[in-house]
Amino acid sequence: MSDNISQTIRENPIFASLTTTEAEELASLCEVLILPPDYRLFSQGQIADDMYVLFKGECKLLVRPTAIADEIEVGRLDKGEVFGEMGVLEKEPRSASVVTAVDSILLKIPGAGFFHMIEIAHPAIKLLLAHTMNKACMRLRDLDTRLENLFV
Amino acid sequence: MDAQHLEQIDLFSKLSTRAKNALAGLLVLKNYEPGQTIVRQGTASDGIFVLLSGEVQIVRVTESGSQVVLNQMTSGGIFGTLSTIDGGTRGADCVAKTSVQAAFLKRPDFIELIQGSSTMALGFQVAIIRSMFSDIRKTNDELATLSSLTPIEEIQLIEIDPS
Predict the structure, then answer these.
(1) ipTM metric
(2) How much is the pTM?
(3) With respect to CATH, is domain B3-159 assigned 2.60.120.10?
(4) Do A143 and B157 touch (CB under 8 A)?
(5) Res. A117: pLDDT tops 70
């Protein structure tokens, strides 16, 4: 079972450079979630302290536009994606709910585990931080482009 | 630069004393007059700035000439990050609104910290990411205000990866 988990972890492009031992250590510091469809990971408005890596499956992003409105699906998270990182680093209320769309396998990284991995300088955390930083760069450049387009 | 200057910077509060001292050793203190342009949009990056005191206005000038204020930054903020990471040109003008004192980290030292594996380097990376998240929120807010996005469209912008 643990062989499968470390293999699953290393199949994710973000963690491809981890050794089997390092992948096992990562799994032990985090929680591996094997979930059915329609499992709610967290809800909009909850104070967050976990980030997630979606190894297999797919998740839905849901938003309730006002307190009394129905939830609306606003997007999907695909295999390989990292999400919830703003929660770990800023402990802000979640801006959306995440629910599994199909059978899914995720890595749940609690805030405490995340910062512990920084303390011990675990190789996995460097990979996660690099991924998060690149994602933030692309998002900022994209926002700048959208701003430009407003004034065309 | 004296490590004392970093004590008030919330983004670096999680760094150990040793890490803060090491970081301070790489930083250079710079002073600017009111109205001085610290960073010019469209130029290449030579490093990042940590705002120690005073106020800096981050303004993007669009191709059509419109000025969009992205942030009125006060002490503790970091600016000039994006182009230093991705090697692109500066995304906005950064102008001193008051007398400003900033700590400058030159690009080669920044890159070394960003690529480092030590606890200090990782702590620095976390600080940079947190400041970028703050930038994302502020730019997103500005965009939403200017384009009258619905709350759902606003969240889509921040949550969905650009395709």
Answers:
(1) 0.89
(2) 0.90
(3) yes
(4) yes
(5) yes
For B16-46, how does the pLDDT look when each residue is reduced to its tens digit (9 = 90+)? 999 999 999 999 999 999 999 999 999 999 9
Model pLDDT for residues A63-104, shown as the tens digit of each residue: 988 888 889 998 999 999 999 988 888 888 898 999 999 999
Q: How far is CA B99 from CA A38, B56, B74, B102, in A?
A: 55, 9, 12, 10
Q: What is the mean pLDDT of residues A107-112?
A: 93
Q: Is B2 on the interface with A (CB under 8 A)?
A: no
Give the domains, in start order, of chain A with CATH numbers. 2-150 (2.60.120.10)
Whole-angstrom Cα distance, residue A4 to residue A75? Answer: 29
Domain segments of chain B as ranges: 3-159
CB pairs under 8 A between A and B: 116
* DSSP code for A87: H
Cβ neighbours of B142 in A, within 8 Å: 147
Query: Closest to B152 (Cβ–Cβ): which among A72, A120, A123?
Result: A72
Q: Are strands B47-53 and B78-79 parallel, antiparallel or unpaired?
A: antiparallel
Least trusted range by pLDDT, from A137-141, B32-36, B115-119, B158-162: B158-162
- Cα(A79)–Cα(A65) distance, integer angstroms: 26
> Exposed, middle or buried: residue B135 (CB in 10 Å: 0-12, 13-18, 19+)?
buried
Amino acid at B137: R
Residue with tokens 């926002």: A143
Instruction: Report the residue from A65, A86, A141 with minimal CB separation from B151.
Output: A65
